[in-house]
Amino acid sequence: MLPFMLSLYSKSLLEIIEILEEQIVTICEHDIIEFKAYNPDLEDKKIIIHTYKTWLDLAQILKCKMLTPQVLDEEFVLMRYKKLSNDSFHAVDADKEEKYGSESIFAQIHKNEETSFIYHYSHALKNVNLNERTRILNLGVNNGDEFEVIEKQASNFQELKLLGIDYCHSAIEDAKQKFQAHNNVDFLQADIKELHSLELGKFDLIISIGTLQSSNLNLNEIFMSVVQNQLKPDGALILAFPNCRWIDGEMIYGAMMRNYNYSEMSNLYKDVVFCKKYLQQKKFRVTITGKDYIFLTATSIRK
Ligand SMILES: C[S@@+](CC[C@H](N)C(=O)[O-])C[C@H]1O[C@@H](n2cnc3c(N)ncnc32)[C@H](O)[C@@H]1O
Predict the structure, then answer these.
(1) How far does residue 300's CA lie from ligand 1's centre (Å)?
(2) Where in the sequence is the domain holding 15, given as residue range(s)?
(3) 72 in the same domain as 17
């Protein structure tokens, strides 16, 4: 289908949003909508020039991917939005354990190559003094992506002992394959609900990214049990709560809640605040950072 071409440069952003919202519902998934806008590189104080940040935010709100704009001339660019599909891996009705397996849409995601993930994860690792955290546990490790960052960032990687847990068989097999050359890295296919009975002892650092809010887990219960039974009193914790969805490989800002067709963050705030308050009572210093993933980083004030 031929792209729509609209001329929107003389309009306010509010008008542009209304027009694009009306148009987007009329086109099919993966169709492209095009509109003429002022070239964001222009420096003309007499007109309002929208930035690429504005256009990128708008693309995400409209559930579109922003394609490379075409420079028409010094004054104008052609903005191009591609409508994303409705489905995401969140909606996939796969086996619950294989929902995030090696054959899933999730396996095609490279979150370590997304600025708003890797920047904040890497900072969280620095903030917990990674090199001093000998025993490290990752809950919901999937294919081991998060250990790859530790491998790059720790100056004493071989001296650390890492254990990753996930109930997804194919993801754990991928992780084992990835780290087969490292005898200090182990992976265990197990259910987080059974963690206490695995008798793994206590850890210096526990990481869990995008996992503890899973519908099969009771976050408050699991979280308190992990802190009481798996974390050393002077240990550290890095939790990340998704504030995004993945659609067609795109990380779309904003947590999604059942029964809402727009981003709604009540659950996200409730869970983050619960974990923060609990850790503060247990004498941890807690910081909250991030954007598409909200990172809660906790270090003991006993240390
Ligand atoms: C959204 S994915 C996040 C994976 C990885 N941390 C990341 O951010 O890319 C959630 C992971 O937790 C695992 N998981 C969910 N519930 C689990 C449970 N009860 N026991 C073990 N693993 C679980 C899933 O198999 C999946 O790999």
Answers:
(1) 26
(2) 4-83
(3) yes
Say whether both 172 and 76 belong to one domain.
no
Ligand 1 midpoint to CA 75 (Å): 48
Cα(145)–Cα(164) distance, integer angstroms: 11
Which residue CA neighbors atom 3 of ligand 1 most closely? 210
Pocket lined around ligand 1, Cβ cut-off 6 Å: 100, 111, 140, 142, 145-146, 166-168, 171, 191-193, 209-211, 214, 216-217
Shared domain check, 132 and 57: no
Indicate the pTM of the whole model.
0.93
Question: Cα separation of 192 and 152, whole Å?
Answer: 27
Q: What is the largest CA-CA distance in the chain?
A: 68
Q: Say how many Å lie between the CA of residue 28 and the centre of ligand 1.
A: 32
pLDDT in tens, 16-32: 999 999 999 999 999 99
Tell me, yes or no, whether 70 and 111 share the same domain: no
The structural domain count of the chain equals 2
- Dihedral sign, Cα of residue 146, residue 148, residue 154, residue 158: positive
Using CA positions, which residue lies closest to atom 12 of ligand 1?
140
Per-residue pLDDT tens over the stretch 42-71: 998 889 999 999 999 999 999 999 999 999
Q: How far is the CA of 279 from the centre of ligand 1 (A)?
A: 22
Among 62, 83, 104, where does a domain finish? Answer: 83
Q: Report the CATH number that the domain containing residue 74 is assigned in CATH.
A: 3.30.110.40
What DSSP assignment string belongs to 281-296?
HTTEEEEEEESSEEEE
